[in-house]
Write a structure and sequence with these properties.
Layout: E1 13-16, H1 32-37, H2 39-45, E2 49-52, E3 56-57, E4 69-73, H3 80-92, E5 96-101, H4 111-116, E6 130-132, E7 151-154, E8 159-162, H5 177-192, E9 197-200, H6 221-231, E10 239-243, H7 249-255, E11 265-267, H8 290-304, E12 311-312, H9 322-325, H10 333-345, E13 350-354, H11 374-385, H12 390-400, H13 438-441, H14 447-460, H15 463-466, E14 468-472, E15 479-485, E16 489-496, E17 502-503, H16 507-510, E18 514-518, E19 528-529, E20 534-540
Parallel strand pairs: 1-2, 1-13, 2-5, 5-9, 9-10, 10-11, 12-13
Antiparallel strand pairs: 3-4, 6-8, 7-8, 14-15, 15-16, 16-20, 17-19, 18-20
Helix pairs in contact: 7-8, 10-14, 11-12
The chain binds 1-deoxynojirimycin.
């Protein structure tokens, strides 16, 4: 990697959902001190940065995505001093802390909103998006993402305010330069504390124009982001990643422009929506169209090569566990978890590992009363009322529910998997005696050590970072294979995506190459691929 390249190009980020990672005070909820206790584990894994889901002060109407004070930490998680201690402790392992910035909206308990709703001439009124109206006569028929109208009436001032999410999450008015200035000051305050980067929640929704019914990708979006970047991120050496459900490759090239004018990269979700019925929502399950998965990754790899940067992820706090989703969490759990890791980490971009993914943690099948996620309870209620079959509804929840990702981290085989000495806020997955960090860290054949090796390879072999991408065996229904090349290195990644033993059609291509990593022993036989078998081949030269 050239010396003028950005550090985050060969970095790997680890996402922590603080509520479920490690509890230090016995209240059953994870916290910042708990993360500090586990830093050695993260150091061993070799990650470069931690993305923390929101920890700022919040009434938790939407699990912290409703912030009431950007410059304070929620007491559930600790204090600003704990955050400073976390930044310092992580620094000892060369790990940077990425904060989750929620800039599209605040909590309705935020001081700005409390002021704004007092009167039309309050200095904070114009911090939010208001329209005159009459009670019961809505400005228009726009709907909120979490259901109901996007407009909420405030009788005291006879106006409606706009909210794309919950009524407890009023949208900020980015047209107001004062709002933008306050946000920049706040970001610089965190930068001064040594924060290493930011993940920007639903950033493609900030430039809304409700009168034109525009929410996502508003006309001023990139103008706002460029100003934000210039006033804040560009003053440091940060990693920044925007959440952009509305991104196509063209837009992603703007977001991740190598000139640094916007962000380092964005999360795009094209592959994530593949296993649902066309035009329906995520609960309406459909088999994964495998060839399409290959096409989508290929398009993003090619389009952003040399003119943008990808983020690579299978999991986050909103998604089911990948080994249960597109692997096999029963007899081939270890093999398939490693295969999915190898497949993703061989690509160009910055990989994100979601807590427990490196252990092959699986989905859960709870009874409805054991779930905590409001989204799960809402869909259950709605669908039962609409006459859906109960087993079918529960099946969708088992397959796609967000709580699959939110069960406590499985540290060891003691009670509550070592997560808490209290009562966990959500039940621990009962497979923790078999699947836990303690049994994997020192086992060279564990999933943990496969991830660890992948992180190291990215640092040792520049081709992982800068190589171009060619899809191989485009129409093969079982194998996901590709070649990456730079001027003096070549890697070929071959993955059997399914559970049958099949012919290996790339024996000729790989015959003079060495194996860098595989998920089975005995890779000499190049005529077949065993269930979920994955190999990384390497050679010098193009
Ligand atoms: C995306 C977050 O991942 C989700 O949890 C949250 O509800 C919305 N943004 C709104 O902030």
């Amino acid at each position: 990697m050239g010396s003028n390249e950005k550090w985050w190009k060969n970095a790997v980020v680890y996402q922590i959902y603080p509520r479920s990672f490690q509890d230090s005070d016995g209240d059953g909820i994870g916290d910042l001190r708990g993360i500090i206790q586990r830093m050695e584990y993260l150091g061993k894994l070799g990650i470069d940065a931690i993305w923390l889901s929101p920890v700022c002060k919040s009434p938790q109407a939407d699990n912290g995505y409703d912030i009431s004070d950007y410059q304070d930490i929620d007491p559930t998680f600790g204090t600003v001093e704990d955050m400073e201690a976390l930044i310092k402790e992580a620094g000892k392992y060369n790990i940077r802390i990425i904060m989750d910035l929620v800039l599209n909206h605040t909590s309705n308990q935020h001081r700005w909103f409390q002021e704004a709703r007092k009167s039309k001439d309050n200095p904070y009124h114009d911090f939010y998006v208001w329209r005159d109206g009459e009670e019961g006569v809505l400005p228009n028929d726009m709907r909120a993402i979490f259901g109901g109208s996007a407009w909420e009436w405030v009788p005291e001032i006879k106006q409606y305010y706009f909210h794309q999410f919950l009524p407890e999450q009023p949208d900020l008015n980015w047209e107001n330069p004062q709002v933008r200035k306050e946000i920049y000051d706040m970001i610089r305050w965190w930068m001064d504390k040594g924060v290493g980067g930011f993940r920007l929640d639903v950033i493609d929704q900030i430039a809304k124009e409700p009168d034109n019914k525009i929410t996502i990708n508003g006309p001023k979006l990139h103008e706002f982001i460029q100003e934000l970047s210039k006033e804040t991120f560009q003053k440091g050496d940060l990693i920044t990643v925007g959440e952009a459900w509305g991104a196509d490759p063209e837009r992603a090239k703007l977001y991740s422009n190598p000139d640094g004018s916007e962000f380092s990269m964005v999360f795009q979700f094209e592959h994530i929506g593949l296993d649902q019925q066309e035009g329906k929502d995520k609960w309406d399950l459909a088999p994964l169209p495998f060839l399409k998965l290959k096409q989508i990754f290929t398009r993003w790899q090619k389009e952003l090569h040399n003119c943008g940067w990808n983020s690579l992820f299978w999991n986050n706090h909103d998604l089911p566990r990948i080994v249960s989703r597109w692997g096999n969490d029963k007899e081939y759990r270890v093999e398939s978890a490693k295969m999915l890791a190898i497949l993703l980490h061989g690509m160009q971009g910055t990989p994100y590992i979601y807590q427990g993914e490196e252990l092959g943690m699986t989905n859960v099948q709870y009874e409805i009363e054991d779930y905590r996620d409001v989204e799960i309870h809402n869909v259950y209620k709605e669908r039962i009322e609409a006459g859906y079959d109960r087993d079918e509804v529960m099946h969708s929840i088992h397959v796609k529910g967000r709580d699959n990702a939110r069960t406590p981290m499985q540290w060891d085989d003691t009670e509550n998997a070592g997560f808490t000495i209290g009562t966990p806020w959500i039940k621990v997955n009962d497979n923790y005696k078999d699947i836990n960090a303690k049994s994997q860290v020192d086992n060279p054949n564990s999933i943990f050590n496969c991830y660890k090796t992948l992180i190291q390879l990215r640092k040792e072999y520049p081709v992982f970072v800068d190589g171009d991408f060619t899809l191989l065996l485009e129409n093969d229904e079982n194998i996901f294979a590709y070649r990456r090349q730079n001027t003096d290195q070549t890697i070929v990644i071959v993955c059997n995506f399914y559970g049958n033993t099949i012919d290996m059609p790339l024996a000729e291509e790989c015959k003079n190459m060495e194996i860098l990593l595989a998920n089975y022993d005995n890779t000499e036989d190049m005529s077949v691929l065993r269930p979920y078998e994955a190999r990384i081949y390497f050679s010098h030269g193009r």
